[in-house]
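Input sequence (514 aa), recorded before submission:
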Amino acid sequence: MNEVEVVIIGAGPVGLYLAADLAQRGVAVQMVDKARRPVRHSRASVVWPRQLELLHGVGVADELMDRGRAIEGVAFHSNPGELGQLRFSTIREAPYPFGLAVSQEITERVLIDRYEALLGPLRREGELVRLTQDSAGVYLVVRTDAGEKEIRAKWVVGADGAHSTVRELAGIGFTGPTGVARFGIGDAGIVGNLSTRMLHYFYSDSAAIGISPFTEDTMRIAVSMPNDAPEPDREFFRRMLTENTRLVTDVREPEWSTAFDVRFRTADRFKDGRVLLAGDAAHVMSPAGGQGMNTGLQDAANLGWKLAHVIDGRASEELLSSYDSERRWAAGRVSATSGRLARWSAARGPAQSLKRDAEIFLSTRKRRRPNLVDVIAQLDTRYPIGGTSARRSRLGARFPSFTGYAPERAPWSSWPVHDANRYTLFLWPGATSPRAWDNVVAQVGQRTHHVVRNLAGIASPASTLGLGRRPHFFLVRPDGHVIEEGHFSGTDPIPAHVLDAPDRTTTRHENHER
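Predicted structure, token format:
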């Protein structure tokens, strides 16, 4: 019987990202996927700013940027015209202040290349048919062309999509509202006056339309459809876009097109013993806002370091319970955002349309952070760590830093870096003199086993935005989220429980905003 530390079922973007992340951490990984090749046509078409940060951590962001198209923002339109725009350039605390239009096929191929560089050839031929578990591991039976194969794993991750076999065999419920939403999608050229650097949403009484530009000549088109509508063709897309937008005059023959149905569901739990769920196996949400695959990548980023710490003995299995609580909470927030966009899509009649247009107008002009641009970019994920935090606290939030290393080219070379495997203690000097601050940093480094990073002298003002004139500390997990923070001084030092914090998801939280 083959024995391995982690088996990942499903070789889509989420499973491949998790495999690469674990391999970089020294974890033995095996993948199982009944598909024999990457997906040719898929719904996912945009990678958001937070996910570019995560993909940088596994070494593929640069290649994806070379093969994708930068998206400057999102434009919302209705019958009266453009209602407003969300510009990613307004996000000062993001090293990637743009989205990336790139097909899931390309995303998968880039991740496969990275997987194979780390782990060798990706073998897909296998279908999970049985799963049982005990307190020490999981027993799997996989059907291959050569017959059934037995695998023993310490942990199993189901990243095998909305119809997850792992979820079904583990007996995990998958519940949500009744009803089905149907969409027609395809890739085609568009004739008209449409910006190819923006993601566009058009709303009318007869349809909701999303358009994402892959190139100057090819757009991903998504149109809401009646539940009994046939497969979309060129005539369907041409009619819907010319009748419901003022910017499109014709649609060329699609390279491909299809219709798909979505039932919005969330797994009853993301962890059951030694079985974990990620991506669409854990949650299926509205395609509005392009949040599905992006949310799955956040699942994998939250899970990877925790699995590695548990496997190598740096943390107890209790750490993985926080994966379920944190990601269920986060997925619920993302689903609420997707649901909000879906409600805008479903608005019909003068009263509902007027209300929708007013909401969009106000949402695209809100200045106070976080706002809708942070939400869509998935930069607002803030885990409920340590209880309720002060209003201006970063506790639970993402820290604006790269994982592992910063790119050599500007402007990214000036951004801070948190360690990929250990906790990182960032220190901000405030108005402390440089000579005195150097002594402070050296003394802290001698008192803690964490990686210590000095924020003084960082060139990017965005990465130190709003940190103030008092010395400040931030304890950051390997996934880039803050688990402790506070002011400190010679008479009010960093608390011992922060300096000595074990590698777990939370420490004993106290209010250090003295």
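Checked by second reader. Residues 505-514 have pLDDT under 50 and may be disordered.
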